[in-house]
């Protein structure tokens, strides 16, 4: 734009200094473009090719890096690293490898996990469960039920460790003593987020049905829709269901227990109540969990289902490398 203004003002007979002042450039710049236009016309206003250093790495280099990532890492290594990639390429600096990985948002350490369901009725079952979350039947209670087995009562040495430099660290020893295990049966009320939980030594069918008896007693004369996973003890309970006509079981698809909201609560329980704790007896562990359940119910809120679509996504057409 400035070059065109310089030429047009020069055509009006303006001096170099007056043009430079109006356009806002140095007089030598005005002189340059006046002479370029006089010698070459409009083509003289275009940039000339500028010689520069040829890039060392090109798109071919990028393709080589991606192709190498598709191959197994060197023998004895679990995954590729920047130095390993640079060494395998032979002529690419490791810093360029790191820059390329960052620009393409490739993380060599982080790993994604997935669970592919082979249930032929995945869509129907998932829609049934999600439908209970987003549009529960009128005057009915929707519950998510499952169990967390073999919670260990571990006693760990805890306290402060004083270092030679005078600094004190707090933590726990890696050594521990076992005091038994408990299986926690839990039912999450979808509408309120509150939990009903009981402890059991085992997770057999008889313990499951005993827990369901306590759940039905907590909601007398109410229609209950119970979401369960495909554990064998949850199935083949037709006799119990006949004796409890107000209860209907809904099963998540195979390998899709993540659809059960009580699994989310078990994760919260592990993170907020169980991780990093120490117990001197099984009774202490059970009382600790019961206290957490009571505290959680005082501030419980329902989970909000935010997934817009639930569908089975096959791996067809996707590249999966098996090592």
Automatic annotation (TrEMBL):
SUPFAM superfamilies referenced in this protein's UniProt entry, alphabetically: Homeodomain-like (SSF46689), Ribonuclease H-like (SSF53098)
InterPro entries per the UniProt record, alphabetical: Homeodomain-like_sf, MscS-like_channel, RNaseH-like_sf, Tc1-like_DDE_dom, Transpos_IS630-like
A Pfam family this chain is assigned to: HTH_32
Protein name (database record): Putative transposase
Tc1-like transposase DDE domain ranges (all copies): 142-286
